[in-house]
Design a protein that fits this description.
Helix content of chain B: 55-70%
Number of domains of chain B: 1
CATH topology of the largest domain in chain A: Rossmann fold
Structural class of chain A: alpha/beta
Order of helices and strands of chain B: HHHHHHHHHHHEEH
Number of helices of chain A: 17
Shape of chain B: globular
Radius of gyration of chain A: 25 Å
Mean pLDDT of chain B: 91
Largest sheet of chain A: 6 strands, mixed
Oligomer: heterodimer
Shape of chain A: globular
Number of strands of chain A: 20
Distance between the termini of chain A: 50 Å
Number of strands of chain B: 2
Radius of gyration of chain B: 20 Å
Strand order of the largest sheet of chain B: 1-2
Strand content of chain A: 15-25%
CATH superfamily of the largest domain in chain A: P-loop containing nucleotide triphosphate hydrolases
């Protein structure tokens, strides 16, 4: 069978970074083709080349067996290629209809084209069960619905080949299932789907064939039925990896962190958290499961003292924290440390050298100051030494304290932040998205360190949108939806479906 | 106040608001596309100079207008090149435009005419005359409306009518046409426009050129219609007040007209109030009155307009993410 799409010897460099090295890929028509690989393996670059967003330095693209020149997204669209980007390409201030017709307006004046598009949109919505209000502002839509607009945009342009880049990152499990059903429907119509993800479970569930990328190279293409998650993981990383975290049972100790009736209202007056009560005990990992944007970020920030609650109280090791002491510096002194969700925004300063980032939050440490009378000055040698020790302990590569923080890979940045916090001996550790944008090798390492920390008696509150991670690490799991806790489960007594319902807002009481 | 006095103030308000309106709409086009332009002032100034020089040399106000537009568009393209092609800092580029225009117009003016930067006075066809709208005299007998129509609406120069015509045109093009939709999109999220297969630079250059044309009309109005010569720094901060009006209008065409008329009215009021003795206060110093529009600008911007959200990508050069 002639491949629907064939990429031959695609090569692309960005400065010193060789993102794609002689990549070959053949995608069969009417199939769902998965592409897996770690962050930075070159998946998104490859797809951006196919979509004309970047131009390859070398190589050829063939569609239906014929070589084609794709120099811009307009060329790709003309060849029937549609793409749903990981970060949606939607204009939030425009309506659904305006977003759909943008670039395909059908005339100088909008009126006629818009009427036609409205009819076509209704037809597509009915045919695929993608109900949507064409006149709604995109900014008012949920993330799941925004993705629906992206898909409709591609279908409206008559895409025969649909590329989806990490489409499930923002979806609840039921929403993801609905997306998979849609992909199956598109496939049944003979359309071709390219599905990029780093979740092996999804690859196994929906794809016909799977290609694995590693460090810019295509290392394998296999029929999905003939492979397994461990085999794929090994191909991605280049060595054997443990997907399951080894964890021994442990009886938790005294409560180290208690939140009582916490509520948070943001600057716009929207209630972000409502009546949140939870307890984290010594030697236990409590996981917060939820789709991004349901209050987990606010919960972490309020517990870390970054934002203030409008109601509620916080206890650390049984001691009530008065409002004036609820700030990150004071809480740190009490042993509550925080690995923020977004390391590039709150965890480190990208333009600082590693040793400065590694001192953030602890710049008052006497060990970093010069001897009197120059105590106001930093002892940079001490800071560099300290960073070198952190880097050794957490296998941060390259172990260069002078390298800019932004030059490290995501996994190594994360290890540096974790090292900084963990080495201070926390009683309670708040951890947000510890493995977002982190390669598998580093994920394994980070998971082992967190388990070790728990075994050493630290209470850990873990927030993650990766359900597998929550289920693998936690002793207890709280599900959040719409700023509330919708349920609590013991880790061994639950599964993804059960949690998925709680994350979707089906609360205990209603059930 | 009698009708005649009211008509005089309104007429003067309208005249004073024309350059503001041109600059405000110019800024609207530029910022809607994602290019912040604080060089409106400089573009109007250079346009005023080029228009005066062109009109003087040719003896035709229309050629003066064309020269003004040409100079302003040229400056726009410099700003566009820095902001769009070179992805430079748009504020720095705008400031440079302002300084270049102020210096260039004065120096070249002095070199050419030797009148301390002034251009020679324009007379006859070298100046835009007032256009009497059809019916202005016929309806003059209608009470209230008739005189107001004749005194206020009718009897302005060509660039003024162009400026007011630009309001509905701007609204229509932005709201109802393909180009307008793309332009609104590119100022909010250029990546969405790019992935839809449309060129981001072309759209932004188009917007910047329209911005130049409008500034050109405003500048020509100043030198060839309102005054009869170019004077150094004759824009006197109007390009900046226009930016304030743009925020006040929340980047919308009709409210921009309202904001500019309000500023024009304040200006007219200030002129009228000079030398008038107010009850309880006594004679008000001229400077205090002249400062009024600026004081109002500060007050309005400080919080009387509610949330004014600029286009999300304005001021941000578009770089494909890596």
């Amino acid at each position: 069978m002639t491949p629907a799409i064939e990429l031959v010897g695609i090569d692309k460099s960005f400065g010193a970074v060789h993102a794609n090295r002689g990549v070959d890929l053949a995608v069969l028509p009417g199939s769902i083709h998965g592409i897996v690989g770690e962050n930075g393996a070159g998946k998104s670059t490859l797809m951006s080349i196919l979509y004309g967003f970047y131009e390859a330095d070398a190589g050829e693209i063939r569609i239906g067996g014929k070589p084609v020149a794709i120099r811009s997204p307009a060329d790709a669209i003309a060849h029937g290629i549609g793409m749903v980007h990981q970060h949606f390409m939607l204009v939030e201030t425009l309506t659904v209809l305006e977003n759909v017709i943008l670039g395909a307006e059908g005339g100088t004046l909008l009126k006629a084209g818009a009427a036609k598009a409205r009819a076509e949109l209704t037809r597509l919505s009915d045919a695929y069960g993608l109900a949507i209000d064409p006149d709604a502002l995109v900014s008012d839509l949920s993330v799941g619905l925004q993705q629906r607009v992206e898909i409709l945009k591609a279908l409206y342009r008559g895409a025969d080949i649909l590329i989806l880049d990490e489409p499930t990152a923002v979806l609840t499990p039921p929403e993801a299932d609905a997306l998979f059903a849609l992909l199956a429907q598109l496939k049944a119509q003979g359309r071709t789907v390219i599905f990029i993800t780093h979740k092996l479970r999804e690859i196994m569930a929906v794809t016909d064939r799977v290609s694995v990328m590693r460090r810019g190279e295509m290392v394998a293409t296999l029929p999905t039925a003939e492979t397994s998650p461990p085999a794929l993981a090994e191909l991605m990383v280049g060595r054997r990896v443990l997907l399951r975290v080894e964890k021994s049972p442990r009886e938790p100790g005294e409560p180290v962190l208690e939140a009582i009736g916490i509520a948070v209202t943001d600057a716009k007056g929207v209630e972000r958290l409502m009546d949140i009560s939870l307890t984290v005990r010594a030697g236990e990992i409590v996981g917060i499961a939820g789709v991004a944007g349901n209050g987990q970020s606010e919960l972490l920030e309020v517990l870390a003292g970054v934002i203030q609650p409008s109601h509620g109280a916080i206890r650390i090791a049984g001691e009530l924290i008065p409002p004036h002491r609820r700030n990150p510096a004071r809480l740190r002194e009490l042993g509550l440390l925080h690995v923020p969700e977004d390391r590039l925004r709150m965890g480190l300063v990208p333009s600082f050298p590693a040793f400065e980032s590694a001192a953030l939050g602890f710049t008052g440490d006497p060990a970093f100051a010069r001897p009197a009378p120059f105590g106001a000055l930093f002892d940079r040698a001490a800071m560099v030494d300290h960073t070198r020790r952190l880097m050794d302990g957490f296998d941060v590569r390259p172990p260069d304290p002078w390298l800019r923080s932004s030059k490290f890979s995501g996994g190594n940045q994360q290890k540096l932040v974790l090292a900084r916090e963990i080495e201070r001996g926390p009683k309670v550790l708040l951890v947000g998205q510890p493995t977002r944008g982190v390669d598998i090798g580093a994920i394994e390492f980070i998971h082992r360190r967190l388990i070790a920390l728990r075994d050493a008696g630290v209470g850990i509150l873990l927030v993650s949108v990766e359900l597998d991670e929550i289920m693998g690490l936690s002793d207890r799991i709280l599900a959040m939806c719409g700023g509330r806790i919708t349920g609590e489960r013991r880790a061994e007594g639950t599964d993804a479906q059960d949690l998925g319902l709680l994350m979707g807002g089906v609360s205990e009481v209603a059930a | 106040m009698d009708l005649q006095a009211l008509a005089v103030i309104l007429d003067s308000a309208l005249r004073l608001s024309v350059p503001l309106l041109c600059a405000c709409l110019a800024g609207l086009w530029s910022e809607k596309s994602g290019v912040v332009d604080i060089g409106l002032e400089g573009k109007m100034l250079i346009a005023a100079f080029a228009a005066a020089a062109g009109a003087h040399a040719s003896g035709s106000a229309l050629i003066g207008l064309a020269a003004g537009i040409g100079a302003s568009v040229a400056f726009s393209l410099v700003h566009g090149f820095a902001a769009i092609s070179q992805r430079g800092n748009q504020i720095v580029s705008g400031v440079a435009i302002n300084m270049l225009a102020a210096g260039l117009s004065a120096i070249v003016g002095n070199a050419w005419y030797g009148q301390g930067g002034r251009t020679p006075s324009l007379e006859g066809d070298a100046r835009f005359g007032d256009i009497a709208l059809p019916g202005a005299d016929a309806f003059a007998a209608v009470p209230v409306v008739g005189p107001l129509f004749r005194e206020v609406v009718s009897g302005h120069a060509l660039p003024a009518y162009l400026a007011f015509l630009a309001v509905p045109l701007t609204w229509f093009v932005l709201a109802r046409t393909r180009f307008g939709l793309r332009l609104r999109a590119v100022g909010e999220k250029p990546a969405a426009v790019d992935t839809a297969g449309i060129s981001v630079p072309l759209l932004r250059y188009a917007a910047v050129i329209i911005c130049g044309v409008l500034c050109g009309i405003g500048g020509a109005y100043l030198a060839v219609a309102q005054a009869a010569a170019f004077l150094p720094n004759m824009t006197a901060g109007k390009g900046f007040i226009a930016l304030a009006a743009l925020i006040f209008a929340k980047w919308r065409a009709w409210p921009a007209l309202g904001a500019c008329l309000l500023f024009g009215l304040l200006d007219a009021g200030a002129i009228r109030l000079q030398g008038v003795s107010l009850p309880l206060i006594g004679p008000v110093p001229v400077q205090a009155i002249q400062a009024l529009p600026y004081v109002l600008t500060v007050i309005l911007l400080a919080g009387f307009i509610g949330r004014a959200v600029p286009p999300a990508a304005s001021g941000v050069p578009y770089v494909k993410e890596r």
